[in-house]
Amino acid sequence: MSGWVLSDARIATMEGGYGLIEGGSVVIENGRIAWVGAGAVPSDYDGWERVSAGGRLVTPGLIDCHTHIVFGGHRAREFELRLEGASYEQIAREGGGIVSTVAATRAASDAVLIEGALGRLDALISEGVTTIEVKSGYGLDHETELRMLRAARELGARRAVEVCTSFLGAHAVPAGSQADDYIDAVCIPALRAARAEGLVDAVDGFCEGIAFDTNQIARVFDVARELQLPVKLHAEQLSNMGGTQLAARYGALSADHVEYASEDDAAALAKSGTVAVLLPGAFYTIRETQAPPVAAFRAHGVPMALATDCNPGSSPLSSLLLTLNMGCTLFRLTPEEALLGVTAHAARALGLDDRGRIVPGLRADLAIWDVETPAELAYRIGFNPLHARIFGGER
Ligand code: DI6
Ligand code: FE
Predict the structure, then answer these.
(1) Quick one: average pLDDT of 3-7?
(2) 316 Cβ closer than 6 Å to some ligand 1 atom
(3) How many Cα atoms within 13 Å fall on the side-chain side of residue 182?
(4) CB of 312 closer than 6 A to ligand 1?
(5) Dihedral Cα 223, 341, 330, 285, nearest 10 deg
(6) Cα of 234 to ligand 2 centre, how many Å?
(7) Contact, 135 vs 309, CB < 8 A?
(8) Atom 4 of ligand 1, nearest CA residue
(9) 314 CB under 6 A from ligand 1?
(10) pLDDT over 70 (residue 1)
(11) Ligand 1 probe mutation, 204, 233, 234, 278, most atoms within 8 A of CB
(12) Ligand nearest to the CA of 134
């Protein structure tokens, strides 16, 4: 026998919406979903071990498709400064912000980077997360960018979770450097080295007035293309710089933040099949007032994902359940859209077609919840109803 049956479940398959199945079962074989449905399980599986979900809700394991969980130090002082009236951009321009985390990350040992990230990762796992994306971008030098990515890979070895890495060398201009020089002399060579070491699953950038412009990002994306790596982009977070259009031109997996994206940008994303990743934790933390154009995304059929953006500055958030709530309350997503955003659409934002829904053939990454309806996952605040988590068929 190579599998088991999870029975007596209310299953949100996330196939075309909640895709609810009442009184359902999931057959798990060799870490994959072999069968899902209501009523009697096919007789092929007679005699397989049965585990009752006790009528609980079963969803795909949650996917946090945008995080910066590997970093050194913290930015509590910056939080205080913002409360005294400074803005996120002001702090960044005055040498705080991303660049201050760079100093702390360079100074941290590998062990310290991994331990810090594990604390945040464990919080996410305790809420049913089974796949997480982790970015570099707080090294901004060759060695530290690679150390961050190795630390990210190590997280996947230490915990029952799949880690997807993104190279974010184009995150900020390090102190004392020129943006163009940095891209050519540091960022691109580090990307090539990280790729050669098998450390990179995708290439990301920060297209913003306080970071890089579209020409600089395009140079990095050209190298990504040459290395056959998919791209994604922090675009239109604080202003409209044309990052979303650039991402669409490169067939990006996702354009992230996108608060300042326009109707035309939404149309471009729809055309390129790029996911809009919404990050309400950053919107909340920096008290952004312009919400992403959710109505335009809906109208154009742009898939929307939701993620924590867990990072020490703009989103010190390590709860994907709270993110669901924020996506609904701050951005007016429906709970169904929010749950799609951390399952099926999050998988798409990572270019993964083997997870995010409960359908035969996909990975058996599941979360079992002590709730009656899927909307409860988004509706509660500061409450974790996870009953059990299944990763690759393992309980
Ligand atoms: N946008 C963000 O929200 C994070 N990075 C980015 O490009 C913030 C990173 C930070 O403030 O440390
Ligand atoms: Fe981010």
Answers:
(1) 97
(2) no
(3) 21
(4) yes
(5) -50
(6) 6
(7) no
(8) 314
(9) yes
(10) no
(11) 234
(12) 2
Split at pLDDT 50, 70, 90, the class of 96 is confident
Whole-model pTM: value is: 0.98
234 Cβ closer than 6 Å to some ligand 1 atom:
yes
Structure tokens at 79: 């939080």
**Atom of ligand 1 minimally distant from the CA of 211:** 7
- Among 261, 256, 305, 263, which Cα is nearest to 282's? 256
> What distance lies between CA 167 and its chain's CA centroid?
14
Q: Is the pLDDT at 286 greater than 60, yes or no?
A: yes
CA dihedral for 106, 109, 111, 112, sign (positive or negative): negative
How many of the other CB atoms lie within 10 Å of CB of 84? 6
| Residue 53 φ/ψ region, left for φ over 0, alpha for ψ in the -120 to 50 degree band, beta for the rest | alpha
Pair of tokens at residue 292: 């992403």
Strand order in the sheet with 162-170: 62-64, 129-135, 162-170, 202-207, 232-235, 254-257, 275-278, 304-306
Answer yes or no: is the C-beta of 282 below 6 A from any ligand 1 atom. yes
**Beta strands per DSSP E along 183-321:** 202-207, 232-235, 254-257, 275-278, 304-306
Closest-lying ligand to the alpha carbon of 72?
Answer: 1
